[in-house]
Amino acid sequence: MSRHPGLNLDASHAPAHDQAVTLVFGFWVFMMSDVIVFGLLFATYVAMSDALAGGPGPHDLFELRTVFIETLLLLISSLTIGMASLSMKHERDDARLFIWLGLTFGLGLAFLSYELHDFASMVEKGGVPSRSGWLSAFWALVPLHALHVSAAMLWLVVIAVQVLIFGQDSEVKLGLLRLTVLWHFLDIVWIGIFTIVYLGELG
Amino acid sequence: MTREAPEDEAGARAADAAHERRSYMKGFLVSLVLTLITFGVVAFDIADRITVLVTLGLTALLQIAAQFRWFLHIRLRGQARDDLQLILFTALILGLMGGGTIFILANLDARMH
Fold first, then answer.
1. Which pLDDT belongs to residue B2?
2. Is the CB of residue A133 less than 8 Å away from at least one CB of chain B?
3. Residue pairs between chains A and B whose CB atoms are closer than 8 Å
4. Is there a contact between A36 and B21 if contact means CB atoms under 8 Å apart?
5. Distance between CA B58 and CA B64 in Å, rounded?
6. Which pLDDT tens digit goes with each residue over A138-168?
7. Scanning every residue of chain A, which has its alpha carbon at the shortest distance from the alpha carbon of B50?
8. Which of A126, A167, A182, B23 is deepest in the core (most CB within 10 A)?
9. Of residues A55, A63, A37, the one with CA closest to residue A197
10. Which CATH superfamily is domain A11-202 in?
């Protein structure tokens, strides 16, 4: 029986196991409201897809290669953060946990670097937000996801420091459970982005 | 409730850990295959636009379902009821607001030409 979204701890992790029911559910409510924000930005993007106003279009601005690399990086990072939460649940070994958290952070950083490269190359080719309705919709949606990834990476660093100072106590466990939910959720939003924003326009 | 012998408990925990690790690997491999299909269809330009769009929509939905199932551990059965209801409600709101936005704006756009 799954008591809340994401990985569930077990009775050996009391009291975090019991507190998680309310805390992770509350976080899940926030995630679902965030989904609606993204969903409406997707709807705006689709409605704006023909509004190029004579400016550069998807074929001029998008690179399939870097989007593919970004997709793989984020997917692998979703696996490594899952492994981090499993390590917390079963191994309780700080060194192992740091390896998985470090890998996740590195993959997130690589993802963001590729994205910044994409954004810079778009600006270079004249694809700035004010150029057309389609570009405004693009810049509202994709960088908002990048901002979410940055915030999640900051949170990851904070949790790593907390592990260093306090060890894997209940508060840290509850934080990592919620960060894992956020991270998987960011990968799910990215599925929408590469499908609708990039491939839907290039295909 | 009878207390299990420590060895059995450790064994059960190890089995549980292995099971959960497999779940993540399964989710990862399914997502990877679906991602490769998605990008392959576009990169190699092997079908007409409608077929491409339908394939993209299907692989995206399948991948979202796979990640909900194996990464976020959301199940249709045995899930705390509130979690699932919240997801279904969110899907309803998204369908109404997202679908409604696209429908209305496309309709207005068509009338303006």
1. 46
2. no
3. 134
4. no
5. 10
6. 999 999 999 999 999 999 999 999 999 999 9
7. A203
8. A182
9. A63
10. Cytochrome c oxidase, subunit III, four-helix bundle (1.20.120.80)
Task: Concatenate the DSSP letters of all residues of B30-86 into one string.
Answer: HHHHHHHHHHHHHHTT-S-HHHHHHHHHHHHHHHHHHHHHHTS---SSSB-HHHHHH
Q: Are B86 and A32 in contact (CB under 8 A)?
A: yes
* Model confidence, pTM: 0.93
Q: Greater confidence, A105 or B19?
A: A105
Is A176 in contact with A84 (CB distance < 8 Å)? yes
Q: Tell me the ipTM for this assembly.
A: 0.92
Residue A2 three-state SS: strand
In the numeric block, which tokens belong to residue A37? 């924000």
The answer to whether A35 faces chain B, any CB pair under 8 Å, is: yes
Which of chain A's residues have a Cβ under 8 Å away from the Cβ of B18? none
The domain limits of chain A are: 11-202
Q: Which whole-number Å values give the CA distances from A142 to A84, A116, B36, B45, B52, in the listed order?
A: 27, 11, 21, 25, 22
In chain A, the residue whose alpha carbon lies closest to the alpha carbon of B26 is: A79
Determine contact: B58 vs chain A, CB below 8 A: no
**Closest residue by Cα to residue B51 from B59, A44, A192, A189:** B59
